[in-house]
Amino acid sequence: MKYVDEFRASPAAAPLRARLGRLGEALSARPGTVNIMEICGSHTMAAARYGLRDLLPPRVRLISGPGCPVCVTPPGYVDAAIELAGRGVTIATFGDMLQVPGSSSSLAQARAAGARIEVCYSPRRALELAAAEPAREVVFLAIGFETTIAPVASLVDLAARERVANLSLLVSFKLVPPALRAVLADPDLSIDAFLCPGHVSAITGTAVYEPFARDRGKPCVIAGFEPLDILFGLCGILAQLAEGRAAVENLYRRAARDAGNPIARAVMERFLRPAAAYWRGIGVLPESGLVLRDEFAAYDAEKRFGLKVGAGREYPGCMCGDVIKGKRLPAQCPLFAKRCTPADPVGPCMVSAEGSCAASYKYERKGGR
Amino acid sequence: MKRAHDTIQLAHGGGGLLSRNLIRDEIVPRFGGGPLEGLPDAARVPMEAGDLVFTTDSYVVSPIEFPGGNIGHLAVHGTVNDLAVCGARPRWISLGLILEEGLSLDLLGRVLDAARDASAGCGVRVVTGDTKVVARGQCDGVFINTSGVGDPMPGFRLDPASIRAGDCILASGTLGDHGMAVLSARHGIDIRPGPTSDTAPVHRLVEAAAPFAPHVRFMRDPTRGGAAAVLNEIVDGRAFGALLREADLPFAAQSQAAAELLGLDLLGVACEGRLLLVCDDAAREGILAAWRARPEGRRARCIGRVDDRAGTVRLETVMGGRRLVDVPQGEVLPRIC
């Protein structure tokens, strides 16, 4: 695969491994551990898939942060989607929402019991489903961070233009910078640097991380998702720490421009406005979500169906909240790989293709490393 | 014990952990024991005239036609391969058709042509069959069941318990192509050239390995759940494990592209014409050479080794780190075969 294989090339890994080692030695005088938080679930998964934690210098830890959209979505959201399905609505969703447990059931279980749940690889599929059956309501589960918000929100535009009147969105969009502020505000966490999400940054640009580098002294390095990208990004972070600097550095220029994507941000601005949002594991954060503007209320499933999305009920003992914040490793949850497995998950971190527990279960369990 | 599910989920058919649990909890307690012991792909049963090897399989693939073949090819190859990996020479098969009202006769003709051509290509004969038609909506186009019988080949003593640390794990060709072809066709993923199913018989690869039979510990065609499911199954509960080398895994570029797009690991995706074989080190080069001399074995590779890390399958990645290769979970790909 062109443009992919190059970033997985074995020979290029050796010099990066050596550089990580040298930087690790340069940092060895530093007291305690060096805690790097990778915010994005795709980084979490890629690091596990390529065994990258094996390659970190001693005392350097890579901690997973709150960047898996499915994981931070509260069970009440799943409950609302199941309730809609029960009212005869077709639910269109990306695949990783299927197994996410609500308070008492999941969309997969609802589907087995007869609900119409359609897995989509593109939001456009929801529009096609709605156009194909005008007499049936279709609701797209609109969750995600900056990366996916614009294309999903533009469904509203497409539906209006193509006069599809039976499509609406159940919106639970979230923004990355407020989550980083929450992580830094937590007294139990001590994060030294952020490995910033490449695709979120492709939309936001570098400016959103400036306050974290400038005011809080945390190196912020934007990296891509291939294993060499991640090793390169980690080298960038350790180099800053070794030199005592803290800057925003974009090491994913082939996809993320420093200015981000102004067109996508204009789409978000046109259809959405900031609002407080509930994050699993973190709670309500002001201005941390985006909801549809009032003039697009007809496309807002909550308003259209008179629904109120609550927090819902989490499984007793589930520590996804702590895992999402990076306070605990997946294996430190007593339910991990026992009561909670990908086949029968109780928490969202075990379900999502980007969840820390799923990554750890899939790639690091049983001393797999 | 409390069941995790009260109804059948699609994932129960995915070939992963839920499939295994369903068979363990519902089938084995009722029918287990005898030739079914250990759940081989085909059972060796004693008859008055000598042993025969017997297997059955049902085919519900969706879509019915996919790049590289159709359900007719699969129905023959799948059953032939189940016999072959148990060390049998496939001889006779049955063909049971369940047809949905409204099925195009042209399509049925193509499916039957494929079954005829595939059985001729495998050197087996369809000798009995059955046809049922159900009302629209009661099946999806055409479902097929085939059973097959074969003669045991002398020399093979296949038993996962005989596997030792240091043994080699061989793959006869690229992995995951069938699953990616079906999935791409099903979801209209338009990659050109796209993935093509590897549906093919493996019994000639088994015959090619027969001169090394005393060195061969285990063979399996990695269908649902792919190579990951097969390897996890053989190390499960044993004192050995497997370490694969990512750099040595044979993958087709088209399948890799499609898997990348869908976020799938090709190790967990089905093949329908490949053979995984575990042998001692002495036989490795001989078997690989014999396979590579055949068109279907051209890309055969040694993909890893058996080691003493009990019960786990691991991968040394192209970056130099290691990670677990888990049993595929959930609805990897329903109706893949």
Secondary structure layout:
The complex is a heterodimer of chains A (369) and B (337).
Chain A: H1 10-26, E1 34-40, H2 41-49, E2 60-67, H3 69-72, H4 75-86, E3 90-93, H5 107-112, E4 117-119, H6 124-132, E5 138-144, H7 146-161, E6 167-174, H8 176-185, E7 193-197, H9 198-204, H10 210-214, E8 220-223, H11 227-243, E9 248-250, H12 262-271, E10 272-279, E11 283-292, H13 301-304, H14 320-325, H15 356-363
Parallel strand pairs in A: 1-2, 1-7, 3-4, 3-5, 5-6, 7-8, 8-9
Antiparallel strand pairs in A: 6-11, 10-11
Chain B: H1 17-31, E1 43-47, E2 50-59, E3 65-66, E4 69-70, H2 71-84, E5 88-100, H3 105-122, E6 125-134, E7 142-152, E8 168-171, H4 177-186, H5 203-209, E9 216-220, H6 226-235, E10 241-245, H7 253-262, E11 276-279, H8 284-292, E12 301-307, E13 313-316, E14 322-324
Parallel strand pairs in B: 5-6, 10-13
Antiparallel strand pairs in B: 1-2, 2-7, 3-4, 5-7, 8-11, 8-12, 9-11, 10-12, 13-14
Helix pairs in contact in B: 2-3, 4-7
Describe this structure in words.
The complex is a heterodimer of chains A (369) and B (337). Chain A is of the alpha/beta class. Chain A folds into three domains: 5-67 and 189-250, Rossmann fold, CATH 3.40.50; 71-176 and 260-304, 3-Layer(aba) Sandwich (Rossmann fold); 317-359, no CATH class. Chain A is built from 15 helices and eleven strands. Chain A has helices at residues 10-26, 41-49, 69-72, 75-86, 107-112, 124-132, 146-161, 176-185, 198-204, 210-214, 227-243, 262-271, 301-304, 320-325, 356-363, and strands spanning 34-40, 60-67, 90-93, 117-119, 138-144, 167-174, 193-197, 220-223, 248-250, 272-279, 283-292. Chain A is globular. The model of chain A has no long low-confidence stretch (mean pLDDT 93). Chain B has 337 residues and is α+β, with helices and mostly antiparallel strands. Chain B has two domains: 41-152, 60s Ribosomal Protein L30, Chain: A; 160-324, PurM-like C-terminal domain (Phosphoribosyl-aminoimidazole Synthetase, Chain A, domain 2), CATH 3.90.650.10. Chain B is built from eight helices and 14 strands. Chain B has helices spanning 17-31, 71-84, 105-122, 177-186, 203-209, 226-235, 253-262, 284-292, and strands at residues 43-47, 50-59, 65-66, 69-70, 88-100, 125-134, 142-152, 168-171, 216-220, 241-245, 276-279, 301-307, 313-316, 322-324. Chain B has a seven-stranded mixed sheet, with helices on one face. In chain B, strands 1-2-7-5-6 form a five-stranded mixed sheet, covered by helices on one side. In chain B, strands 3-4 form a two-stranded antiparallel ribbon. The longest helix of chain B has 18 residues, at 105-122. The two termini of chain B are 31 Å apart. The mean pLDDT of chain B is 92. Classes of the chains: A alpha/beta (369), B alpha+beta (337). The A-B interface holds A 1, 4, 8-10, 13-14, 17, 48-55, 99, 108-109, 112-113, 121, 227-228, 231, 341-344, 353, 361-369 and B 4-5, 7-11, 16-18, 21, 187, 189, 247, 253, 256-257, 260, 262-263, 265, 309, 311-312, 314-326, 329-331.
